[in-house]
């Protein structure tokens, strides 16, 4: 497919984090862009500010006239959109070219020097660190990030179009559309078993992704994963390893041992060993890419993080409120490790919104174990996303398996009162559903309380 011959791009599900970044890209290269989403959001507001026309009703009669010619319009959809969506079926039935977001991302990045970040955990943070390192070293990048970078207040970072930095998503096997020059794999824990069926099937697909790397390219792997490549680790022997680690005023100060020597006195401000690991692989990719050590040190020190990745909403001596996107037991464990490392003597309460009935069912015992580590655990109902309910799979079932000293099933409207009544000094919201929408209001109400 030749994108140069396409004048207009219409996105179904344009407010999604991956879709909106791609929409911003097409605006940047002069295409006419429009789309649909279920409801307005901060993401759709930012797109409308760019001149993108967006409709919020799945009615084909409301499609802007710019997107009614099948010969001039490409339609992009996300797998999160139901196959019964009226707009999707209208375009399919009227000879429009209709492609998944991942297919279009593969086309966009095919003729660039592509750096891809894959893994069941850590993709978004690692992608954003890598993009920041390259951007601050004046590389001509276009970066598609699966979250909003705190440094750029966007999920789309651009200084040029010669180099692409992409989050390589394993859901729906989307990352198999990419042909990267450099790629990393951060983890391959079982997830998306509604797509893969088994952990073994997922591992096979990651190996297929590794084969997509160009013959002259490089694969970076976390030490211990069953792949051949450049290894990275924290306090372990590897090609790139963080060593001599200290925590000073909540900031990691460390060195990185590389194949050619020691990079000393690096500063990184995101808490948690998992984030330090993400920083090491992003740094290793940038070093192998050819960036200067001094430039990378300055860039890493200025990195601020990604929204909803251990994001401080309130940070005072009396009260800490942190928000995180964690939606898998491994990710919850990483949040727990980070908060205990930062606040080892404080009581910690968590509000968790499970994401997907199938994920809750598949990892019920692991969820219970990870959540039982907190001093108090409050559960919201399961956020269904793209799924229908599964009989017997609910938050009550999960609550019964949790062993926190305090545990309770609550509504969103009860969160503030429960946290105020409890009086614990550290509070965390976690989940990948719509709990993130509640954060600004929670921040406002809790700020008055403390």
Number of helices: 15
Q: Can you summarize the main beta sheet?
A: 10 strands, mixed
Shape: globular
State mean pLDDT (0 to 100 scale): 92
Unreliable segments of 5+ consecutive residues: none
| Main β-sheet, spatial strand arrangement | 8-7-9-6-10-11-12-13-14-15
Distance between the termini: 57 Å
Number of strands: 21
Approximate strand percentage: 25-35%
Approximate helicity band: 25-40%
Structural class by SSE content: alpha/beta
List keywords for this structure.
450 residues, 10-stranded mixed β-sheet, 6-stranded mixed β-sheet, 15 helices, 21 strands, 26% strand, globular
Report on this structure:
The chain has 450 residues and is an alpha/beta fold. Helix content is 34%, strand content 26%. The protein is built from 15 helices and 21 strands. The chain has helices spanning 17-28, 42-49, 86-93, 101-109, 123-136, 193-196, 199-211, 273-289, 293-301, 329-342, 357-362, 364-371, 395-401, 415-422, 435-449; strands at residues 8-12, 32-36, 53-55, 73-77, 97-100, 113-118, 141-149, 154-158, 163-168, 182-185, 218-222, 230-234, 240-248, 251-258, 261-268, 311-315, 320-324, 348-352, 376-379, 406-409, 426-430. A hairpin with a 4-residue loop joins strand 16 and strand 17. Helix 5 packs across helix 8, helix 5 crosses helix 9 (293-301) and helix 10 runs parallel beside helix 12. The mean pLDDT is 92.
């Amino acid at each position: 497919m030749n994108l140069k011959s396409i004048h207009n791009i219409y996105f179904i599900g344009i407010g999604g984090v991956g879709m909106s970044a791609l929409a911003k890209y097409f605006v940047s290269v002069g295409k006419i862009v429009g789309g649909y989403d279920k409801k307005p959001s901060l993401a759709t507001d930012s797109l409308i500010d760019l001149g993108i026309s967006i409709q919020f009703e799945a009615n084909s009669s409301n499609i802007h006239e710019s997107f009614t010619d099948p010969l001039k319009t490409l339609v992009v959809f996300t797998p999160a959109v139901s196959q019964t969506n009226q707009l999707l079926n209208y375009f399919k039935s009227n000879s429009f070219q209709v492609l998944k977001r991942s297919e279009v991302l593969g086309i966009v990045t095919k003729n660039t020097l592509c750096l891809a970040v894959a893994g069941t955990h850590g993709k978004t943070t690692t992608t954003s660190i890598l993009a920041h390192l390259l951007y601050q070293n004046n590389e001509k990048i276009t970066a598609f990030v699966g979250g909003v970078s705190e440094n750029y207040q966007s999920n789309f970072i651009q200084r040029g179009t010669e180099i692409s930095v992409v989050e390589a998503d394993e859901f729906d096997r989307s990352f198999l559309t990419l042909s990267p020059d450099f790629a990393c794999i951060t983890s391959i824990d079982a997830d998306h078993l509604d797509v893969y069926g088994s952990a073994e099937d997922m591992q096979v697909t990651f190996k297929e992704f590794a084969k997509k790397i160009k013959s002259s390219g490089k694969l970076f792997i976390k030490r211990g994963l069953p792949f051949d490549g450049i290894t990275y680790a924290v306090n372990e022997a590897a090609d790139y390893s963080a060593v001599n680690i200290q925590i000073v005023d909540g900031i990691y100060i460390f060195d990185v041992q590389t194949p050619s020597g020691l990079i000393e006195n690096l500063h990184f401000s995101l808490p948690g060993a998992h984030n330090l690991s993400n920083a090491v692989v992003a740094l290793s990719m940038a070093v192998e890419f050819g960036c200067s050590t001094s430039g990378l040190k300055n860039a890493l020190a200025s990195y601020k993080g990604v929204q909803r990745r251990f994001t401080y909403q309130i940070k005072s001596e009396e009260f800490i409120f942190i928000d995180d996107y964690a939606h898998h037991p491994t990710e919850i464990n990483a949040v727990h490790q980070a908060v205990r490392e930062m606040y080892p003597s404080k009581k910690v309460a968590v509000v968790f919104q499970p994401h997907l009935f199938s994920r809750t069912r598949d990892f019920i015992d692991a969820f219970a174990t990870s959540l039982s580590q907190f001093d108090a655990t409050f559960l919201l109902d399961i956020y269904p996303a793209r799924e229908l309910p599964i009989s017997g799979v609910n938050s009550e079932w999960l609550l019964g398996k949790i062993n926190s000293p305090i545990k309770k099933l609550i509504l969103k409207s009860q969160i503030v009162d429960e946290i105020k009544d409890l009086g614990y000094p550290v509070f965390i919201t976690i989940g990948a559903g719509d709990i993130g929408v509640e954060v600004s209001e929670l921040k406002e109400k809790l700020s008055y309380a403390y």
